[in-house]
Design brief:
Number of strands: 11
Bound molecules: adenosine-5'-triphosphate
CATH class of the largest domain: Alpha Beta
Distance between the termini: 34 Å
Radius of gyration: 21 Å
Number of domains: 2
Oligomer: single chain
Length: 243
């Protein structure tokens, strides 16, 4: 799995949409399930999206939904230049199954001079080739989602965001042994190797930064940061208690 993997979270993924739109928008190449939903989400957040797909029917289904949609073969350098790929602030290559098309598209975009590329890979060798071409942002949606789901299904974590292979952010509840006392006295970082970043008192409430003097209760929600192993162990501290 890519050590730069990131869940497909379109809006947050690309930061604030306004500066992007000003800088010439985002090109999404390949409007399949992944590229299509990414393009729609970006567009819904005000980003100027240029959608490109080789399939006429796919292109038609996006008519009017994006700032611009083109039927084109993205492996064609002339076409890419005509689309203004050198001017967009980000390019997403969302072609998966056609390995050759994905790699050719990536190398043509690099040749044109845009290095702000995010590419989807459907296998480890695919990801490796994209990395070797010089693309650092390679996503593996199926893998990332599978890893995330594994944590959710286990039950103690209600949301899970891998930042990198060795660092994650998880949403869970405070274990009994750190509750009802100021965070500083619970020594969370020393004892469990994680940091409680934020907390929310109740459903519908707002999130707050977890200062040292805040007291958490077991019915609160918290965001915990640290290595996957430590975060998982921390979120399961009450397991023994529950029997
Ligand atoms: P998903 O799961 O997102 O649907 P996938 O990996 O099954 O993706 P692919 O079949 O590889 O997806 O392609 C995604 C989209 O990319 C398709 O709509 C396809 O028409 C388009 N596509 C494939 N090759 C090219 C190309 N050379 N230029 C432009 N678009 C392409």
């Amino acid at each position: 799995m890519s050590d730069r993997s990131w869940l497909a979270r379109p809006a947050a993924f690309f930061g604030d949409s306004k500066p992007l739109a000003k800088n010439g928008g985002v090109a999404v190449i390949g409007l399949g399930r992944f590229g299509g939903s990414l393009a729609r989400e970006l567009s819904a957040h005000g980003v100027d999206v240029i959608g490109v797909d080789i399939d006429e029917a796919v292109v038609e289904s996006f008519d009017g939904q994006l700032a611009h949609v083109s039927r084109a073969d993205a492996t064609d350098e002339v076409v890419l230049r005509q689309l203004g790929i050198d001017e967009v602030s980000r390019v997403v290559i969302a072609i998966g199954s056609d390995l050759q098309a994905s790699i050719l598209t990536a190398s043509k975009i690099l040749k044109i001079g845009n290095r702000h590329i995010w590419a989807k890979a459907i296998s480890e060798p695919h990801a490796e080739i994209l990395h070797q071409l010089g693309i650092t942002n390679v996503v593996r949606p199926e893998n990332d989602m599978g890893a995330r789901l594994a944590h959710l299904i286990r039950g103690h974590i209600s949301d899970f965001l891998p930042i990198d292979a060795d660092f994650v952010l998880a949403r869970t509840t405070p274990p009994t042994r750190i509750a009802d006392q100021p965070l500083a006295s619970a020594n969370v970082r020393q004892r469990y190797g994680v940091t409680i970043v934020a907390f929310k008192r109740e459903e519908g409430g707002t999130w707050d930064i977890a200062d040292r003097d805040v007291t958490l209760y077991t019915d609160n929600e918290i965001l915990v940061a640290g290595s996957p192993k430590n975060v998982e162990a921390f979120s399961e501290l009450d397991k023994d208690v529950e029997g």
